[in-house]
Amino acid sequence: MDGKLIFLGLVIGVLILAWVGAGVLWRAAELAEIVAPLDPRTASGIEVVAVGTGNGYENPERLGPTTAIVQGNQIVLVDAGRGIAEALRLAKIPVDQPGLVLLTNLLPENTMGLDDLLYTGWLSSRATALRIVGPVGTRTLVESLEQAHAAGRDALGASLELPAEGARAVVEEVGDGHALELGPLHIEARALEGGPLPTLAWRFEQGEHRIVVSGSGWDREALTRFAANADALVHEATYLPTPEELAGTGAEVPHPERLAKEAKIHTSILDVGDLAREAQAKRLVLVRLRPPPFFDLQVRSLVGNDFEGEILVPKDGDVVYP
Q: Distance between CA atoms of 71 and 93, rounded to whole angstroms?
């Protein structure tokens, strides 16, 4: 009997050790995903990654709005939302790899990650200046950020002997029709009028592939023309109920009167499908999301009332094209 008990104790001990060992290995693998160096991301054609899919409001499940266009080993970011370094990690893009940032407008939700991208990328070995292209006002914004961080930047650079150029930004302010070439990738800007500040939508073309990324929905006519027949339209879809619709639901909204004002500067989840249908886009990628609705199926159902093409509701880091 004693022998059986000893044997049973040994079996239990082995199982406990195996369980502990498996936990250690799992934790090690998890840490490797978090801190291990990433290989540069590459794509043979054009690839689109929803790096951050949230908006200006806090949302631990969705970081700030950032979309990555990958062509070869080049990474172009459209906007730089909050938590961009962590969002790039989720997207398996090294934080020092993006060389060009295109801004849609200077709403804080689009620019809060610029200094994060600039200085975290510098710590991660970027040795060349980060190129930032955006509407009027971009230069003042970036120069102000650099000035605010100058003392700390210079002290860190001197202490660690970091290349000074890696902490610099080269800024270009552009307007409607501005075009640039990045290898085989053709990029063009379209001004969207009627909003509270200068705004651009960006179109990326390579061969027969056409991608449009827009951060705002005003000037709908210009946007639908610009996005005509796009293979993918990446656009915001904001749930903005009226105070009347919220009445009696028990939903707590700190400033219900603000919803009507927000509706003037954002595209409602109830309107984005119609916009994509007018543009005859093949795929609609919904970003800048904030709940409710709480489930992807609900979002696709609402938007699908007006748009019959493919509807994607990505998570941070998801590839949304091809």
A: 13
